[in-house]
Amino acid sequence: MTTILGLYNYWIVIVLMMIGFYIIIAHGHLIKKIVGLNIFQTSVFIFYISVGKVEGASAPIWQEGIILYSNPLPHVLILTAIVVGIATTALGLALIIRIKEAYGSVDEHDIQAMDNQDMVNQDKEQQQC
Amino acid sequence: MNLSLETLLQLCILLPVLATIGIVAFNRHQNLREAVSIFTSLFVFYAVVSIYLGLQSGEIISVHWLQILPGLSVSFAVEPLGMIFALIASFLWLVTIIYSIGYMRGHNEDHQTRFYCCFAIAIGGVMGVAFADNLLTLFIFYEVLTLSTYPLVTHAGTEAAKKGGRIYLGILLSTSIAFFLFAILGTWVIADTLDFTQGGVFPEDANTTLLGIILVLFIFGIGKAAIMPFHRWLPAAMVAPTPVSALLHAVAVVKAGVFTVMKVGVFIFGLDLLVVLPTTQFLLYLAGASVLLASFVAMRQDNLKARLAYSTVSQLGYITIGVLLATSSGVIASSMNIAMHAFGKITLFFCAGAILVAAHKSNISEMRGLGRQMPFTMVAFFIGSLSIIGLPPTGGTWSKWYLLMATLETEQLIIMAILMLSSLLNIAYLMPIPFHAFFSNMPVKNGYGVSTDKVQIKEAPIASLIAIGIAALGCLILFIYPNPLYELASAILEPKQSTHGN
Amino acid sequence: MLAHLPILQVIVPLMAAPACLILRKPKLVWLFTLLASSLAFIISILLLQQVMVADTISYELGGWSPPWGIEYRIDKLNAFIALIISGVSTVVLLAAQTSIEKEIPEDKQTLFYILYLLSLTGMLGIVTTGDAFNVFVFLEISSLSAYSLIALGKDRRALWASFQYLIMGTIGATFILIGIGLMYQMTGTLNMADLATRLPEVAETRTVTTAYVFFIVGVCLKLALFPLHFWLPNAYAYAPSIVTAFFAATSTKVAAYLLIRFTFSIFGISFSFTTLPMETLFLVLGLLGIFIASTVAIYQDNIKHVFAYSSVAQVGYMIVGFSLSTHAGLTAMLLHMFNHALMKGALFLALAAIIYRVGSTRIADFQGLGRQMPLTMAAVVVGGLSLIGVPLTVGFVSKWYLVVAAIEKGWWWVAGLVLLGSLLAVIYVWRIVETAYFKAPMAGRQPVKEAPMAFLVPVWLLVSANVYFGVDTRLSVEIATAAAKSLFGVAQ
């Protein structure tokens, strides 16, 4: 029992990861997909940071007299990853704006339907030639 | 000029390819362009004959080009079987060019430059196959041959030509990649070499079942030998202009196929191994079935070229049988048959083309009484037929004789029966044509008298006639004087004086 | 100078990217980009020469020694891949300006080159670094620039393709991040060489297995291994043609590199292939990829789709070679990476030339091109023959090595299937040949001229390379064999 409760950080990570993944797959709205992607990535950030914590240690800022510090490396790594995540989100949102202009919709199913319609029209056009 | 034999060997392969430059350059000047082809073929024939003379005097000629893969190089060497093939191919190339000039101009064909170019590359490919010293070199030029003959088959550019080309390329490429290449790679892994060696390359302790399967892969993979069921490309390739059918599908492409079968049988497996493999008997029966079935189908064809195509399928089976019988007389028979069948079939195809150009007829039922208008052509057709059937005074007699001897030696009586039955069928589907040409009256359709036709039909163009004459004469000469051929054929199984390249 | 080559390999394109903003005119930017890419290519050649002699070069970033500092580690494997990437990049750039004139609006062309250089940086970085997290960083650099480059395509479907690629690619990259995190958690190090020494102690734990699985799945997504390939066809089809030519030849190779590096050098053969059924799994997925993707390619109407699915099939061949887990199999995979880059580079570049003139990607619009664009179509034919595996081309060499490797392992039926897969390539290549050479141009269309020299030179350079390396295989075979040997020597 204590092992399960003691591993609560991993449970949170898993739950968030699955929620994010589910949102990406299940929702057709493009912005919601980006949100899901963010949640998915955030769960990984939490994972990294939580494993860096050392039991009974203080924050990784040097202070006189303290000998046990948490691991600062994961924080550094995650800073990079957060920036990457932001860039991805920004790019994704920019793409959504362009898609909205080009397709008039930001729903996956509508866009797919429009593409399929295009293909059908193209085939008809070709047969007429 | 005092060129060394090695140089001549390489020129045999390279010069035809280089000739394409000349052919393209003289695109507008027909006579100059044809002169390039003629000069090139004369030179190649001269080179081949010089090499032959060199071989006779015991010289070892081998050329090593470059190493493509570790342990494998593109290299060439001269040995009797390749010599036979090279002599036939180079001589008949010259004859076919003469024929083509008559045919292509008489028929007013388009794209003649492309035709002569691809022809040249194809012959270069044939020379590469003939002189190849290992399976890799042979495979490379085998594929060059397939690809260079594709534009020739689809020459007409029509829908029918495209479909024929598709079947042609589809079957040949598929069999060569899926089966032939597979067999080569298997051989490479088991034997650790691909060099053609007297007595075979496989180690003593190799698994015979595995080798038997590899043999089957080889036979099916060498699609150019047209063993059923991979023979469909031959009749499909008949959409090509007749000179193409004549040289390539009577001489070069199909002969490259059976030549490869012979090389594989004699120099990769070795006759002793062939006898003990479990699949040899099955393949013998398959070849026999191919011979019979193709003959039956030939009988039912009304289109002359189609009948000749199925006849070729049937005749190729003879050569495969000769190798699989795994005796020396079988090998002699097969190699002699390569020459005999080449001359005989090319005569027949030349005649078919002449009839097409001069009389505009392609169906046999329309050719009754044609002997009156085209006596020379039909006499040549008669001689060619005799050679294919195997009757004197034509060369085909000898090769059929040796083949029968081989079946008796190995006590393969079923095969012997198949061969004799097939000869009867040959008579049945070939003889009626010249017979009806001379001894029947011209077909008279109801009311639409053919009398005006009588005046218009003349003999074939003179260039074609010369070619037909040479080919038919060849059939006769090979009966009277087969000795050089026989000597070469017997020399195939003799061990060479020195080894070439490790 | 020579001592700093490993980092210069990455810095040169990285610094060149923002420097493009200084120049105004697209033509100047193009020349500058070409210069940067050529420099990167020269650096990769020099590195390869050094590595063939010295075996492995280790470079400490900022003087901080590993495993605490970031290390750049060049051995025969990554020098080879870096050569491929920078080489293809430079040749493709020769035609870039002409190609994008018709596909990208002028105000965006400078941005195109910046993104191109960033993408090149990313790929070269993945290949040269010796630090696992650095891999993730460069992976994201190359991915983000890839998403943007693809979105520059003319068709609006490029935007949608880019978005889908973004979602799938980010999931893949995040999986890789999870894998790296788990590895770090168990060993406390991110340096790849150090991981290799520390992982065996903890290899029995479920955590390490999970790390491996997450990592491999993420890489396979980037690799477009069946069935994780869904982003590739649309991304390649709707991107600007020159982008497709660049990516088709390079992006999957980089993912394949990661697969090889982490399986052989870091986790080790015994772990990867014994603990998990990688042989069977990759063999099945590879074969499925070959057959299904080739079959789908036959029915495509858009010619870029045909060759995109063909690329998925070719990845299948590489993975089959990988699954053999023998020295010969790995050599075959490495050879195919090199040869496929040449093949697809030549094909897609020739396609870019055709699209430049014809303006459409439908096969139906190719009718009669054999007459109107003879040199370009001849290049497509040679590239197609290479794909089929006709002797004297690089495709033949790859097939040879792969089939021999399979036979040597005793997997005869795999060898047969690989050869059968080539037959499918005959069908989709010949469809294009027939349309171009046998059909008359469609009525009412303007006749098109031959492609401009800007295209013909790089196309025929790549086509000649196809034939040259199919005949003189010493360079590629020697490097591939040496790289495979060193990988097998390192792994336990």
Nutshell version of this structure?
The complex is a heterotrimer of chains A (129), B (502) and C (492). Chain A is mostly helical. Chain A is built from 5 helices and no strands.
Give the arrangement of secondary structure elements.
The complex is a heterotrimer of chains A (129), B (502) and C (492).
Chain A: H1 2-6, H2 8-26, H3 30-52, H4 73-103, H5 108-128
Helix pairs in contact in A: 2-3, 3-4
Chain B: H1 5-25, H2 30-56, E1 62-69, E2 72-77, H3 80-106, H4 112-131, H5 135-153, H6 159-191, H7 208-221, H8 233-236, H9 242-269, H10 271-276, H11 280-299, H12 304-324, H13 328-359, H14 375-389, H15 396-409, H16 413-430, H17 432-439, H18 451-456, H19 462-480, H20 483-491
Chain C: H1 5-19, H2 26-54, E1 56-60, E2 71-75, H3 76-94, H4 96-101, H5 106-128, H6 132-151, H7 157-187, H8 192-202, H9 206-223, H10 231-238, H11 241-267, H12 269-275, H13 278-298, H14 303-323, H15 327-358, H16 369-372, H17 374-388, H18 394-409, H19 412-438, H20 453-471, H21 474-490
Helix pairs in contact in C: 1-2, 1-5, 2-3, 2-5, 3-5, 3-11, 3-15, 5-6, 5-11, 6-7, 7-8, 7-9, 7-10, 8-11, 9-11, 10-11, 10-14, 11-12, 11-14, 11-15, 13-14, 13-19, 14-15, 14-19, 15-17, 15-18, 15-20, 15-21, 17-19, 17-20, 18-19, 18-20
